[in-house]
Structure formats: C-alpha cells, structure tokens
Amino acid sequence: MTEGLPRRGVRFLRARWRVVARLAAWSVLETGQTFLTGYAPARALDEGFLAGRTGAGLAWLGVAGLGVLVGAFGTVRVYTAVAELVEPLRDGLVARVVARGVRQGDSAALSGLTQQAEIARDTFAGLVLVSRSFVFTAVGALAGLFSLAPPLLLVVGVPLLAGVALFGLTLRPLARRQEAFLVADEALAERFGAVCPGLRDITAAGAEEPVAAGTELRIDAEQRAACSLARWGVLRVVSLTIGGELPIVLLLATAPWLLGHGVTPGALVGALAYTTQSLLPALRNLVHGVGTSGSRLAVVLRRLLREPEPQPPEPQPAEPFTEAPAPALSLASVTFAYGPGAAPVVERLDLVLSPGAHLAVVGPSGIGKSTLTALVAGLLEPDRGRIHVCGHPVPGRRAAARRVLIPQQAYVHTGTLAENLGMLRPDPVPEAELLAAAGAVGLLPLLEALGGPGARVDPAALSAGERQLVALTRAYLSYAPLALLDEATCHLDPRAEERAERAFAERPGGTLVVVAHRISSARRAEKVLAMDGRSTAYGTHEELMRRSALYRDLVGGWTPVRSQPALALGDPDRVDAVAGTGLAGDGRHVVAHRPVGQVQAAGDLRDGGPLGGED
Ligand SMILES: Nc1ncnc2c1ncn2[C@@H]1O[C@H](COP(=O)(O)OP(=O)(O)OP(=O)(O)O)[C@@H](O)[C@H]1O
C-alpha cells in the first residue's frame, strides 16, 4: 500500500463532495430536532404550564413533536445519501479484489476478499451514520443549552468535551490493539482449521506435542491481545462516563446553584433532556461504533487495498539449454512427509522426464507411489524442493492445466457417454475424435453396447473396469500432455491394460507416468522408478534388474513360479519365464504370490497380479 488510509479516506470523500454536502444538509434537520428536544419542553414549562398557560405549554410540546417528524424525514434522506457514499466504496473494493483474484487465479482467496468488501461496506455505513449523528446532535444540543442559559453550557459542555477528547486520545492505541486482537484471532482460527481435520493423522504421526505447542502459542498470543484490548477498553468506558453521564450528575448536583443564578426550572429540565435523550445516546453510539467498527474497518481496508506480494521469479527448469523445450516433468530434491513429526514418504527425489517419455513407478505397497502422483498433480505440496510440469511450477494453474490424474477409483457421472468423455475438454469433442479415442483406449465395445456416444450412462450399472475405461478415455481426450495413471487400470485384464497404456504412450506429445500394477506395465515403460522409502532406483527394466535388489524382489513378487512338475518337465518356455526375470542368476528365490491357476486365468505368466499381494 503506497498511501495511508486517512489520506485515501479524504481523497475518497473529496471526490464525492456533493454527496457529503447533501448528507450534511439533511443532517441539519436532525440538529433542529435535537435543538427542540430540550428547548421546547423548557419553554413549555416556563411559559406554559408553570405560568398557568396550558395552551402555550401544549403548543410548545406540539413544536417538539413536529421537530421529531421533521427529524425523521431528514433521517430517511440521510440513509439515501449514506448509501450513495458507501456503495461506490464497495464497488471499488470488489472491482479491485476481483481483478487481483483473477490475475492471481486464486478463487478461494477471492471469495474471502469479496466477503470482506461487504463487511467494509457495512462497517463504513455504520461509521458514517454514528459519527455524523454525534456531530449534528452535539451541535443542536449545545446550541440549545446556550439558548436556554449559558451556565448550562458550562456544566454540560466541559465534561462532554473532556470525554470526547479522552476518547479521541484512545482511538489510535485502541485501533492498534483491536487489530492485533483480530490478527491473533484469525491466526488461531486458521490453526484450528488446519489442525482439527487432521487430528487422526496427527495422532498417527505421533505429532501431538509439536502441534499442541504451536496451537498453545497462538492461544497465548490471542489471550495477551485480548487482555491488552480490554485494558484500553476501560478508558473507553471512562470517556463515556465523563462525557455522557457526568453532565447529568453535575446538572442535578448544581441545580440549587443554577436555579439561584437565573436558570429557570424549564431550562434545567431542558438541559436534562439534552443530556439523557440526545448527548448520552449519541456519545455511546460513537464510542462503541468508532471504537470497535472503526478499527475493524481499518483492518479490512488495509487488507483489501494491500498490493499483492510480488511473486518470486519462476524457477527455471534445470535445462542446459534455455531454448530447449521444458521437461514434461521435473522434480528437484522433493521431500514430503504427512506432518511435521512424520518420516518423509518422499525424500530428496530428483527426476526429469522429457516430453513423450513413458515412466513406470513401482514399489512395495504403502511406499509412496500415490503420494508421488498427488505431489505431481499438485494435490499435495512438497515440504522442500520444486516440481514443474511442462516448465510451470506445481502447484499452479498452468501446471494443473497440463496434467491429468486418473486415480484408481474412476469417476463416472450420470449423463450421456459423450458428456462423460468430454468433461476435461473446454470445447465440444467431435464425434469422430471421440470414437477414435474410444477405439484407441479400448472403450469402443462398451460404447457400442451402450448405444453410442449419446447414450445415457448409469454409473452404478457399469463394472469397475468399465468405469476405468470411461475415465481413461476422458483423460485421453483432454489436452493435458502429462497423464498420471495411478493404478488406473487395476480393474482391467492385462490385455486391456496394455492397450490403454499403449494408447497413452502413443498420444502425440503425450508423456505418461504409470503407477505400475503389473510387471508388464514396468516392462512396457521406457524407464522405471523403483521407490523404496528413502532410496529410489531409476533406469530401464534391464538396468534395474541388474542393479536394484529392490526391483528384482518386486519382479520376483510379481512373477509366479511354476509348479514343480512343470519345471521337472523341462518346458523351456516355463523356465524362461522365470529365468527371463533375471532371478535365477543371482541365486535369489522366487516367491509365488498366488496359485498357478489364477495366474493362468490372467493369461500372462509374467503378469502374476497386483504389486504387494493385494489379491
Ligand atoms: N493422508 C495421509 N495421511 C497420513 N499418511 C498417509 C496419508 N496418505 C498416505 N499416507 C501414508 O503414506 C505412505 C505412502 O502412501 P501411498 O498411498 O502414497 O503409498 P502407495 O505406494 O501408493 O501404496 P499402495 O501401493 O498401497 O497404493 C503410507 O505409509 C501411507 O500410510
């Protein structure tokens, strides 16, 4: 923010001087009403009822009643003028925050900011009403007191001014404390918002103590801010007592003296009417309104008018030649743990994939494969390190537009098949393209069985494998060059899986990362990333078979051993099936994870089944 709030406020009001003038003009009616609040009853008493002229007394009371009507008319006009003043403020703020939100692409922050703009509007309207009302009421009351008897002005005016002065002095420190309290309150709310949904994970990660300590710090900070605010709040009450209540006490205490020095009983009653009916309520509204809403408005405006933090320069992908195309995916020393006290699931991982690459990610169950895809997809943020998709930082809008994640649980919604398949496309997908995609991925038989692209789909009537084919074809049709298949083919048979994977691998300009479900997935990929907690191995299938014990173990887990009689028969294919995995050479034992019958049902000796012995 380059200019302070008071200056901006003055500039804002100066630009709308006509509305301000209209507001002041209508407020004068309120001053007149206040004047009559004390003056008319005083005259009614002195010149009417006490003088035995009931008619005159009633006439003066009638004047007071007329004053109320005129004042009410003025108040209605005042509201219209206030609206003319505050609506442009709101419009300006909303335009500003929407422009900023659109520039930054942060829709969550945007809705919060527009809500704050509404708060600013309401608070500003309240402030204008109470401060204006106090000024015009005070002028009317003080003028009335002076007209009735100048000594009354002394008795009421001096404490009133002292109270207002004291209130004025407390304004700045109070605003600062109010702001400190709001900030501490928000920090605590934010902390609870983050901690409460994650209580289970915090317990699971054994991070209770650091989380509790961090929360306690914020609670202490809020308590300190609240105590400090309360101490200053006492001064506010003192100023109200001096300015609003002390004059009443003084009027009563000095009544004999006043009556003995030319002040009439009517004037005394009038003065009491001014203090109790006009000055005290107006001062109370001012103290509460400006004291609380004023500082809140200052906080909200400061936030809304703050210029966005300059974005750090985008880190360049680690490429030797700047003119070379950015890698489809790059991870630089990426570390991630599910909580501050938890062991990292991914640790200092480096990876660079060129456009068109095909990577299989393998590893034991629970090692972090899905976590890795979630990091690349921007669903999780690394604790350290940087991720780029097509040269764009993750998380970020541009990176998100360039990747598509297909999770294990495929999502199909009620509607036509064409609607389901075109969901990730900004433009309508031509039918020929849709059919070609369905053919490539292997959805065509289902598409035909359902009755074509226009047929309605009942997600519940589809099998898990059919739902996966729909989700895969939808991703295939998207413009995102990077496809992340996180066990997205686990319900397909090996042949269908191969077809779908090949389709993605052959997408023009497409890069494919597959969390491998079968050994055949890893063999098809150009490169394999074998995850093993803190250490990872990266290379081709053959390279990893040579140098990664973990990978050999995984392949062993995937590869079924033939029953003894089959080996005894000396079937060269069957021996090859085992030896081909490279297991025989290093003397390791191959562990069969499933009975032979199931393997054969799967139709591929080397595709024993899912990693980690899930089924
Ligand atoms: N939301 C979470 N909060 C805390 N820990 C989690 C969370 N999600 C996963 N984990 C843990 O992180 C580790 C890695 O999980 P992840 O799902 O990435 O493994 P995976 O290799 O994909 O497993 P699988 O092959 O069984 O799908 C596991 O120990 C898991 O329990």
UniProtKB/TrEMBL annotation:
<dbReference type="InterPro" id="IPR011527">
    <property type="entry name" value="ABC1_TM_dom"/>
</dbReference>
<dbReference type="InterPro" id="IPR003439">
    <property type="entry name" value="ABC_transporter-like_ATP-bd"/>
</dbReference>
<dbReference type="InterPro" id="IPR003593">
    <property type="entry name" value="AAA+_ATPase"/>
</dbReference>
<dbReference type="GO" id="GO:0140359">
    <property type="term" value="F:ABC-type transporter activity"/>
</dbReference>
<protein>
    <submittedName>
        <fullName>ABC transporter ATP-binding protein, AmfA</fullName>
    </submittedName>
</protein>
<feature type="transmembrane region" description="Helical">
    <location>
        <begin position="124"/>
        <end position="146"/>
    </location>
</feature>
<feature type="transmembrane region" description="Helical">
    <location>
        <begin position="152"/>
        <end position="171"/>
    </location>
</feature>
<keyword id="KW-0067">ATP-binding</keyword>
<keyword id="KW-0547">Nucleotide-binding</keyword>
<dbReference type="InterPro" id="IPR036640">
    <property type="entry name" value="ABC1_TM_sf"/>
</dbReference>
<feature type="transmembrane region" description="Helical">
    <location>
        <begin position="59"/>
        <end position="80"/>
    </location>
</feature>
<dbReference type="GO" id="GO:0005524">
    <property type="term" value="F:ATP binding"/>
</dbReference>
<dbReference type="InterPro" id="IPR027417">
    <property type="entry name" value="P-loop_NTPase"/>
</dbReference>
<feature type="transmembrane region" description="Helical">
    <location>
        <begin position="20"/>
        <end position="39"/>
    </location>
</feature>
<keyword id="KW-0812">Transmembrane</keyword>
<feature type="domain" description="ABC transmembrane type-1">
    <location>
        <begin position="23"/>
        <end position="281"/>
    </location>
</feature>
<dbReference type="GO" id="GO:0016887">
    <property type="term" value="F:ATP hydrolysis activity"/>
</dbReference>
<dbReference type="Pfam" id="PF00005">
    <property type="entry name" value="ABC_tran"/>
</dbReference>
<dbReference type="GO" id="GO:0034040">
    <property type="term" value="F:ATPase-coupled lipid transmembrane transporter activity"/>
</dbReference>
<keyword id="KW-0472">Membrane</keyword>
<dbReference type="InterPro" id="IPR039421">
    <property type="entry name" value="Type_1_exporter"/>
</dbReference>
<dbReference type="GO" id="GO:0005886">
    <property type="term" value="C:plasma membrane"/>
</dbReference>
<feature type="domain" description="ABC transporter">
    <location>
        <begin position="329"/>
        <end position="557"/>
    </location>
</feature>
<keyword id="KW-1133">Transmembrane helix</keyword>
